[in-house]
Amino acid sequence: MATNQSHPDAVGFPERWTVPAVMEEEPAPVLPPEPEPEPRFVVAAPPPDRHQTPWTQVSNPAPGHASFVWVGAHGGAGVTSLQRSCGFGQELRAEWPNPALGWPPGVVLVCRSNMAGLDAAAHMLQEYAAGLLPGLEVLALVVVDDERAKPTKRIRTRIRELGGTVPNLYRLPWQQAWRDDPYQPNKTAARIASRIESLTHKENQS
Questions:
Q1: CATH number, domain at 91?
Q2: Could you tell me the pTM of the whole model?
Q3: Does a structural domain hold residue 144?
């Protein structure tokens, strides 16, 4: 086969090209671009030096009933009041839900707005960010005010710091009514739970 000498490095390069005739076509309709998927919220951290929070060894009392779990980072965080006041979710205290025992994988971490509570939440969030909890997903952090007064600047700064490590941060103001009746319905808690429910449905559809 003859080769084109102007292309000495092209082995078997054809001297003449044969191409099909270009047919005039109507321009294709311009379609709107498909929306890009929302980036997954990912935070990485080294494992904490302290003990690891245990996985619960208790079976979910109502498997399939809830789409997420309120997890108290410490005793008295308010998970029982949140769950009973709005009727959404299951509850655990200082334990991670175990999907193998029927618990939903969605976690809403709850703590009080004092430094001890925020530090307890930070410890559990570090465990999650270190990849120690396969199968679980922290959906949000709920900080429950522990007094009527405005939190100090140090507390507010700490809350903002923790808020940067979770996809959603919610604040529940001081609930004076819960002192007499800790489980009465609460509109703010119900709104928070409703938003989290919508997050879990969105996750299940993606």
A1: 3.40.50.300
A2: 0.77
A3: yes
